[in-house]
Amino acid sequence: MHFSEQNSTFEKICSIPTDYDITFIKYKSRKTGLTVVLADIEAPLVNGFFTLATEACDDFGCPHTLEHLVFLGSEQFPYKGVLDTLANRAIAQGTNAWTDVDHTCYTITTAGSQGFLQLLPIYVDHILYPTLTDSGYYTEVHHINGKGEDAGVVYSEMQGCQNSGDDRIHLRMKRLMYPENCGYRSETGGLMERLRELSVDKIRSYHQSYYRPDNLCLVITGKVSEHKLLAALAPIEENIISKGTLPPMQRPWISTGNFPNLTDNITETVLFPDEDESMGTILIAWNGPMCNDYLQARALDVLNEYLTDSAVSVLQKEFVEIEEPLCTEVDFHITDHLKSTLMFTCTSVPIEEMEKVPSLFFATLQRLIDNNDIDMKRMEVVLEKEMLKLLDSAETEAHETAADLSISDFLYGAIDGSDLKKSVKIQQYLEQLTKFTKADWLNLMKRWYVDAPHITLFGKPSAQFAEDLAEEERQRVEKQRSDLGEQRLAELQKKLDDAKTANDMPLPNEVIENFEIPSVSTINFINVQTARNNDLGNFKNAVQERINRDDSADVPLFIQFDHIRSRFVNVSAHISAAGMPSHLLPYTRLFLKAIFSLPVQKGDTLLTYEDVVKGLSEDIIEYDATLGTSGGFREIVVFSLKAKASKYHRAVQWLEDILWHTQFTVERLKVLANLILNDIPQAKRDGHGMATASMRAFQFDASKSVSAARNILFQTDFLQEVLRQLENDPSSVLADLNAFRDALCRPENMRLHVSGDIMNLENPRTVFKNFSPATELTDLAPIVLSQEVLNPAGKTPGKVAAIVGLPSIENSYSLHTVKGPSRFDDPDIAPLLVLIELLDTMEGIFWKLIRGQGLAYSCFLNADIEAGLISYTIFKSPNAFKAFEQARLVITQLVNHEMQIEPSTVDGAKSAVIYSLVNRENTMERAALLSFVNQVLKQMPASYSRDIMSAIQNVTMDDLQRVLNKYLVHMFNPGTSNVVVVSAPAKIEEIQKGFEAVGFDMKSISLNDISPSFCV
Ligand SMILES: [Zn+2]
After folding, report:
1. From ligand 1's centre to the CA of 157, what distance in Å?
2. Are 897 and 960 in contact (CB under 8 A)?
3. Centre of ligand 1 from the C-alpha of residue 259, in Å
4. CA-CA to 141 of 20 to 30 Å: which in 20, 279, 487, 609?
5. What is the pLDDT of residues 871-913, one digit of tens each?
6. pTM, 2 dp
7. CA distance to 114, 507, 772, per residue, from 511 (Å)
């Protein structure tokens, strides 16, 4: 059928160009009230953010539970998982959603627009007409199982976060800030005690009230033809119209989102469970401006940056960068509600300092006002940086930037697009702010922070509270169990089993096969052109010619240039840490934390550390010193700086200064060592993080590996010793750190990368002429891969089996590893990626049989070629052993052909893997980085990613069986796999017994037992 815009029911409300390469077009249907915003962005990916305004005045969690139930099937497609299965065929990786306090957003990202438009009507059918069955509610939201325990996917999810420090503090703030009739006050995720009382009827009636076409906005970002979009919307409209008209609806939030301001100060303490009682959190909150007061909100953003953005900003300087830090982080936040809330957070505050921090904070702001103290030069730098960040985000996160603006506009803006027109003019507001005087800035601070009433909350960790919570919950479940009695429990178990069967209505193959897989050739990849310094004829392109012409000096360095279209340039040094003496390795964390905030000595001039931090913020928009890149290569130290293209030479100069001219000082080292130490208790509250850290400690050789030696678990003792040395014999520490630098920063260890608009850079090559102390290019030291620094337990898995107790969590996490392929050109990689996708994917095998059975919130496999290991993670599980046992059963059945892999699901998995590869190069910057990683670090051809895509398309069923037998079966054999479980103390015994029963010699240990020399 030919389609023309004239016969569309959609009216184009406005088309809004911006100064940052995004054009917004807003449509509204005359017939159904459906809103569509298309944000036109040049990129290979297309994103959907399908948003509903969702307001709730209680804590039953209707918005969040509904978000989960939408994925269980729709009127036209009444099958659980159909959406995710088809999404994969659309060249995507499943679908996702989030619930915020004022809206619910359903998301999808596809490579290219063809799959996106095919999926659009199916997705909208799920949102507007979900099945909302009793059985879906029972498994996905809440039920009581045969053991008398409360469960369900949403219930377990809230169990995992409701009592965390952050959630408890924020909920208390909301209760104090917002009145009874205001939805901002609610826990839209659902509190456990309310979820236990919720019913599916309540959710159905919530759906009826809020999930209506006139309360739905389809935000679409990327390259989509308007004409094709309107054609894809036509059947959606027809279907909505066929349902008849709805009664009129009051627009959510408009009458309830504004509320009276605080009239008095309120101070309270909020306890949260943790064994370690040393560090707390402080939250201060105020009423903020209305959301359409764009200039005021932008001004507060800039003021917040000025107060906290770097080591020389007032609040960081006086609260963080001091010998005994009052906190490790200071942070402002403005909510984007109809009337905003301003928040200030201090993280990791030593408990004995807590009481005094808020008064010091207010005294500091008052002092600035009294002394008329705003450094206008620095303010100018902050404003310029905000402008650059805006342009940068349009290059690196254009989709998210566009979605944020569109969602806020849909929730609170004028229907005619007039507010959207104002809200996109970010650059203009920043320009207006350059005219602000000192007095303007101080008045702003006085009005919103100093004079305004506020709420102060002290978040304090408490071991007693942890015990009380656990005991109260134990008693509640015990009472529930005995009240129900054995017969009723058996009935409940039967009801649960029936619900699972009812949910698992098989998806007919023809539904899958009717959904055409778009060709990979329809995706617009970003083109990157590579050149090298001192190239011997390997690269033949215009960029190489440009580099060759810039030949006025010798540059004895390895440099790769990757040309892309960008306003910015990235300069980075990737340095192999191979020759580092063992005793210096534990300094890695301190060295990386310090290196960008030290004094610099150049000839006779000494820049203080403040000068350096200020100078960097004038010239550089982002800088960092880390281990590794692209989620791997952790044996390589990476220094990176990003600047506007005209400041290329400054970026190179700063890199040289940082690498060779920084001065370690006792004063700075004390501050930084204390900051690292104060952050450790917070890191140790994270179950998944601790499972990863423990496994690394067991598998990598801390006497050879920089990443192993910096393990957070080893740092407490080491840094305390460093602090003692800094008091007693500081020269030894300074000598060690200088030796660390000398061993690291040698030209033969160094591979430089420059990415940006190389064709228009001034002296792209000779800007490096005085960079290195070396006069000729010696042979480069080989790149050290993670597989070369494994210890015996990492090289031959089968020796590690440990369970670690962690009192701050309520569930368990586990990590399992086996040997995997270790060469980047191994032919097993492509089938392994497809197999992993088949098992891991949403509504895939593990999802149905593990998450669907309530055994874990999620579980996933990862093939780490660089380490030569495959890992399997079980995330947030009531009992990690049960989830493991189920995975074992699944793999065994696949090996024995008792369970078959459907050919149509293999096609979906291939297309999902291709999506994930496209996603790695979806912005100019990422495409350029990938070019470096593939050609320099992996030493593969430039076509490496495309070659893998072709190999993926050619994977056969036999290939899948081969890699299943060759690798994954070993995960379940104690002789060939390593396992680390991190668990709530109450569950240790049961989990340990489970693993022992299948042959793992499981040792129960605590985090403090793990040291560089400790072996399980
Ligand atoms: Zn959820």
Report:
1. 6
2. no
3. 29
4. 487
5. 999 999 989 999 999 999 999 999 999 988 888 889 999 999 9
6. 0.89
7. 18, 7, 62
